[in-house]
Amino acid sequence: MNEAVSRRSFLKRTAAAGAGTTLTRYTPLSAALGAGAAPQVLAATADKPAALGGSPAHRGKFQSWPIYDATEENALREVLHSGNWFRGSGRKVSQFEETYAKLTGAKHCVATANGTSALLASLGGLDVGPGDEVVLPPYTFIATLNVILMNHALPVFVDSDPATFQIDAKKVDGACSKETAAIIPVHLGGNVADLDTLLDVGRRRNVPIVEDACQAPLAEWKGRKVGTWGRTGCFSFQASKNLNSGEGGAVLTADDDLAEKIYAFHNNNRARKVSGYNFSYRGTRGANLRLCEWQGSILLAQLTRLEKHSQTREQNAAYLTKQLKEIPGILPAEMYAGCTRNAYHLYMFRFDSARFGGGLTRAQFVKAMAAEGVPCSGGYTPLNKEGFLKDVLASKAYKRVYPAKTLTQWEERNRCPANDRLCEQAVWFTHPMLLGPRKDMDDIVAAVRKIHAHAAQLAKA
Ligand SMILES: Cc1ncc(COP(=O)(O)O)c(C=O)c1O
To answer: Which of 234, 304, 314, 392 could serve as 118's disulfide partner, Cβ 3.0–4.6 Å?
Structure first.
């Protein structure tokens, strides 16, 4: 069946079912007709979900990723023929650092091998180590946790704010102690954590904020780019990210001394080269976490599209939100008032099973969406409950550093009930899906509506 016809017939049939009721926008028929009548009427009127034998809401593919053209090809060829493949001999990485600093309004930018290295170099520059506590959200990619554990520091998880999917900033102060050496908020999904509250805690306690902005290039808080608010801001340019060089990362900071420490940390303790070889060592620890010229050149090429892509994502996300929030049980991630720009690395919403007929589960919803040709995922599991953390706390190094009481009480101190629930309800679309035409957004909405209308049947299927 033609998709446009199928969507139109859906609207026509739902309108007919609601005769006598003016539906100016999508109104759940349960509300329009009265809760008791809704399930049967809906089942009879809405288009059939693909999982029940109907035609899929979306045919074909969503936008693929990465996007590239001759710009990238020429950039790579230029590096190839220059013979300068290492940042020490070429100019691409330093050009990228200058460009990214200018774009974000940062004073310094140090490019790194990946986002994990950016976080590691930040903690290294700030001298975080064994015996320190570091605050982080449980709703994040594991790298945010790994860099803490690699320093034999103690992770302290602060519960999530389910409305925004971000760390619940109001709970951060209560989680800090005199051992807190850093707070790592994550701008999850490209949305922005409540920086006002977090920066206030950091200022009062004299604890540095390390922004994990790995998913949030070009996102803004009160008109200023994220990654420039904390002592450092860390970015990832890994293949799935909005700005992509396969692997890559960067640290931003306004602190001159810290910038040099971070540079040395990522360069095996070697300070910036003034001329010729420089074997003057600086800092206490270091590794080779450098980006290379191939990646620098790809990043410069990809940067030419970042702003345009971000605008498309924002427009499509706003359109999606307007429609999806009208469907009962679909709760798109909200933004704090200070978030003036969302990078939409992910389009995130909560799926409330109780508001879908038959108690359709999230797993059933995700499967039914896949049948509609709309891929989505349930996202992260609670990081604070990962089994390997028990092994970490029981390891030789941790037992040597931390009092037994600290380790035995860790689990209780790190409960995050709101996040547990969020992990059960979350659903994500990936950012390339937001780069397609408006029709793709209409197809996504049509898929969710169909599933909502036939939830009870799908729950039994
Ligand atoms: C929130 C967050 N932090 C850190 C990282 C680590 O970045 P990378 O994979 O470039 O090391 C990622 C990337 O996946 C991330 O999403």
So the answer is: 234
User: Same structural domain for residues 108 and 9?
Assistant: no
Tokens 């599933």 belong to which residue? 451
The per-residue b/e assignment along 182-195, b for 16 or more CB within 10 angstroms, e otherwise, is: bbbbbbbbbbbbbb
Task: Tell me the C-alpha distance between 309 and 180, whole Å.
Answer: 38
Could you give the dihedral angle defined by the CA atoms of residues 446, 450, 453 and 455, in that order, rounded to the nearest 10 degrees? -130
Domain containing residue 290: CATH number: 3.40.640.10
User: Which pLDDT belongs to residue 38?
Assistant: 40
Single-letter code of the amino acid located at 108: H
Question: What does the alpha-carbon distance between residue 408 and residue 424 come to, in Å, rounded to a whole number?
Answer: 27
pTM strictly above 0.70: yes
State in Å: Cα 236 to ligand 1 middle: 6
| In a shared domain, residues 156 and 274 | yes
Instruction: Give the ligand 1 atom nearest the CA of 249.
Output: 10
Binning pLDDT at 50, 70 and 90, where does residue 41 land? very low
Average pLDDT over residues 165-171: 98
Two tokens, residue 148: 């803490």
Q: 92 and 60 in one domain? A: no
Q: Which two tokens stand for residue 109?
A: 């930018």
Based on the fold, state whether residues 99 and 219 are members of the same structural domain: yes
Share of the chain above pLDDT 90, in %: 86
| Distance from residue 133's CA to the centre of ligand 1 (Å) | 21
Structurally, the chain folds into a number of domains equal to 2
Question: Do both 139 and 172 map to the same domain?
Answer: yes
Reported as half-sphere exposure (CB side, CA atoms, 13 A), residue 288 has a value of 4
What's the CATH code of the domain at 342? 3.90.1150.10
- 117 Cα: distance to centroid of ligand 1 (angstroms): 9
Structure tokens given for 85: 């493949």
Beginning with the edge strand found earlier in the chain, give each strand of the sheet holding 108-112 in spatial order: 108-112, 249-253, 232-236, 210-212
Q: Are 231 and 258 in contact (CB under 8 A)?
A: yes
